[in-house]
Write a structure and sequence with these properties.
The protein contains four helices and 13 strands.
């Protein structure tokens, strides 16, 4: 019941942010809290088929100018704002921070915990603080094909058993010719 109420509250807050100008594309998944969207939702656009995971923060202004704008010669610098434009088919990893004046994608991946303060080129992956190029989407696909166990064949009741066996017992079994029973069923 509590989960349902939280989800309804989140949906209500997202609808309110959209009324304030937040642009969300079709089939976009937003898992971050509405409070992480920032104080200027009208400066944020998230394209079709994009995913924003939990804890992602959108920063659309630079409050640090208060360090110097109290001095008379800098009072003309009242505040500094910038838009955030996430193009279509992007993935923003858990706890990433997106700074003002940034465009991401299309077809880009931002790794977990990344701090993005520069544009992310289309078809690339970035990670780190500050976010840096790690690979192209093509390289990421190739790496994923080599390292990911497809879970489409795993029944929920056996998922934990199969994955734990694969990842925790793999080193022992790499020297044998037969993979573990669970992985063999999946692969």
């Amino acid at each position: 019941m509590i989960k349902l109420l939280k989800r309804l509250n989140q949906n209500f807050k997202m609808k309110e942010l959209q009324k304030q100008g937040l642009k969300l594309g079709k089939n976009t998944i937003i898992l971050t809290a509405a409070d992480n969207i920032g104080s200027e939702p009208f400066l944020i656009s998230i394209g079709d088929n994009s995913v924003v995971t939990a804890g992602v923060r959108f920063i659309t202004h630079d409050g640090a100018i208060r360090v110097f704008n109290r001095k008379p010669e800098y009072r003309h610098i009242d505040n500094k704002y910038g838009k955030i434009d996430i193009k279509e088919n992007c993935f923003i990893g858990i706890n990433a921070i997106i700074m003002p004046n940034v465009t991401i994608g299309p077809n880009a991946v931002v790794g977990a915990g990344a701090v993005v303060y520069k544009d992310v080129r289309p078809n690339t992956c970035v990670a780190g603080n500050p976010a840096r190029f790690t690979c192209t989407i093509e390289e990421y696909i190739s790496l994923s094909e080599k390292t990911i166990i497809p879970d489409y064949g795993i029944h929920k009741s056996r998922k934990r058993e199969i994955l734990a066996d694969y990842f925790w017992n793999r080193e022992d079994k790499e020297n044998t010719e037969e993979p573990s029973t669970g992985v063999k069923e999946v692969l």
